[in-house]
Write a structure and sequence with these properties.
Layout: H1 3-6, H2 26-29, E1 34-38, H3 55-66, E2 71-73, H4 102-107, H5 113-117, H6 129-150, H7 153-165, H8 170-189, H9 197-200, H10 203-206, H11 210-219, H12 221-247, E3 251-256, H13 265-269, E4 284-288, E5 298-303, H14 307-312, H15 316-326, E6 331-334, E7 342-347, E8 357-360, H16 363-374, E9 379-381, H17 389-398, E10 402-405, H18 406-409, E11 428-431, H19 440-446, H20 449-459, H21 466-476, E12 481-485, H22 486-489, H23 519-531
Parallel strand pairs: 1-2, 1-12, 2-3, 3-6, 6-9, 10-11, 11-12
Antiparallel strand pairs: 4-5, 4-7, 7-8
Helix pairs in contact: 6-12, 8-12, 15-16
């Protein structure tokens, strides 16, 4: 029986704002043995080229609850920029408009049913971002225009309230994206490549001068207004999914990239908080030195923070960023946690990450400030890569769980490897693999014969089902939380890999197909969860 057959369709959420949900205290969120699945919303199935915040999101929550899972882990939700990467968003506060469910816009009267009946034949198993944007963004523009022309009563009031409450980022974000759209269209017409704002825009606009902002807002007003409506759509739909998940006992496990994109409204709005030259170009950029993933390191290209300026402002930028994300999810995975202790600083002129230096970061000062402002923080520290004793000490002083990845522990098995199961600690989250790893089947197939034999020897049984053997191993780990990518539940190979670090294109495309998650897989997952004492009842919790 397929997933879509075994779970009844759920009526889409209304456009009324969701009622507040009583969420567990942060300390309780990461207490007790539990487990969950990793699947970004773009990877949900559905008929319109990309996963979205509609029926399939609710069905996935129902699936998690039915299989005894307590967490739905996702990737960052921002509007994906370079390479369609969620880790390179145009804004750290905004939501990705490509995730907006169009069926709900039809129900609200902002689109016509024919708009969806004439959808192009987009692929089901992966996202074709170029074709998707060509079809979906004009539809969103049409919906936004109709909303602004016809919205009144409760919806109009909700929109006005939303714009007022999000004014610290919304207006500038909408203007930034509207100008980007205008400049991108001009560049394409002239046969030029797209350029970031600090290269292609007029000097007064680059410097965020009030008169330039006023002039451009008038010039691109329809696009600016539409972008604000899109964010209204996104947050209403996301908040409804979040509320529904809470009612079903499923916690949303979000992700915060440590850095922001150079081509983002964050840098445009607050250049004083980043290491930039007089023309607003980055002088030093982020990355990591050569490691497991790349012999030349990873040159991410994000501008580095001016930590002294951040501290002088009382870390207000970070406080606002965490507050916004904590309103959207229950737990936050902080990406590249080691960068809060020290970070790899690469001169912007360097083409790779080989040449750089480690510089200190005020991680303890930052997180203590956040704790004073926001209270206890439900944070998981992504502590992978080159981790020093100082990074571990910062993580432990703050009390944050770290991460354990079985693929790292079971390739070249050694007694000093912190990812080997017998070295897992309770205050951690264990994964078979992450979004940056190969699938477990793909990983096992890539191992050399001696490593395969060593793995069988370690497991004390032949490796005949690598994905599920690692799933059960993760479930039995001492780690408090176990997270499994959906690709591993499905026993998929390298063709289903979500991301290959260091490659600029072809990532973030994989999608679950309708009917792939069979009843027997859900039953097996629940059984493995139960055997490991990770069902909600086993943790002293009760489902709604």
């Amino acid at each position: 029986m397929s997933w879509s057959q075994e779970l009844p369709p759920r009526e889409p959420a209304s456009h009324d704002p969701p009622a507040p949900t009583d969420s567990p205290a942060p300390a309780a969120l990461l207490a007790g043995r539990a487990s969950g699945l990793l699947l970004h919303p773009t990877s949900l199935p559905g008929p319109y080229g990309i996963g979205c915040l509609g029926r399939e999101a609710y069905r996935f929550v129902d699936l998690l609850a039915a299989a005894g899972q307590s967490y739905w882990q996702i990737l960052p939700l921002g509007p994906a920029g370079y390479g369609d990467s969620p880790y390179s968003a145009y804004c750290s506060a905004a939501g990705n408009p490509l995730l907006i469910d169009l069926e709900q816009l039809v129900e609200a009267g902002d689109l016509d049913a024919d708009d969806l009946r004439h959808a192009p034949d987009l692929p089901q198993g992966q996202v074709d971002y170029e074709r998707l944007k060509q079809w979906k963004l004009p539809l969103l523009a049409k919906a936004g225009e109709r909303f602004l022309r016809t919205a009144g009563g409760p919806r109009g009031g909700q929109f006005e309230t939303f714009c007022r409450e999000q004014a610290d980022w919304l207006d500038d974000y909408a203007l930034f994206m509207a100008i980007r759209q205008h400049c991108h269209q001009q560049a394409r017409s002239a046969g030029r490549d797209d350029q970031p704002w600090y290269i292609g825009w007029d000097a007064d606009l680059v410097r965020h001068q009030p008169e330039a902002l006023r002039r451009w807002r008038q010039r691109v007003r329809p696009q600016w207004e539409a972008r604000r409506v899109w964010q209204f759509y996104f947050f209403q739909q996301w908040n409804a999914v979040h509320q529904y998940a809470g009612q079903r006992g499923v916690r949303l496990f979000g992700d915060m990239p440590i850095f922001v994109s150079d081509d983002s409204v964050d840098v445009w709005m607050a250049p004083q908080l980043f290491l930039l030259d007089d023309d607003r170009r980055p002088t030093f950029v982020a990355g990591v030195p050569p490691d497991y993933f790349s012999v030349t390191g990873q040159r991410w290209g994000n501008p580095l923070y001016d930590w002294q300026a951040m501290s002088d402002e009382g870390f207000a930028w970070w406080t606002a960023r965490f507050r916004r994300l904590l309103a959207m999810v229950d737990v936050i995975r902080v990406d590249h946690f080691r960068g809060f202790e020290s970070y790899w600083s690469i001169p912007a002129s360097e083409p790779t990450a080989v040449r750089g230096e480690w510089l200190p970061a005020p991680g303890r000062e930052l997180f203590e400030s956040l704790r004073q402002s926001l209270g206890p923080l439900p944070i998981v520290a992504e502590d992978l890569g080159l981790i020093t004793a100082e990074v571990e000490a910062l993580r432990d002083q703050l009390g944050f769980p770290g991460m354990k990845v079985l693929q790292f522990g079971l390739e070249g098995i050694g007694p000093d490897n912190p990812h080997v199961p017998e070295r897992h600690v309770e205050n951690s989250v264990v994964y078979t693999g992450t979004h940056d790893n190969n699938t477990t089947v793909g990983w096992y197939e890539s191992l050399a014969t001696p490593d395969k034999l060593a793995l069988g020897s370690y497991l004390k049984t032949p490796v005949t089902d690598p994905a599920w053997q690692l799933i059960r191993l993760a479930m039995q780990s001492p780690s408090r939380i176990a997270i499994v990518p959906v690709q591993d539940v499905l026993r998929l190979g390298s063709e289903a890999r979500m991301n290959t670090p260091g490659t600029p294109a072809g990532n973030w495309r994989w999608r679950l197909r309708a009917g792939q998650l069979k009843k027997n897989l859900l039953a097996a997952l629940q059984e493995a969860t139960d055997d490991a004492g990770r069902l909600p009842a086993a943790s002293g919790e009760r489902r709604a």
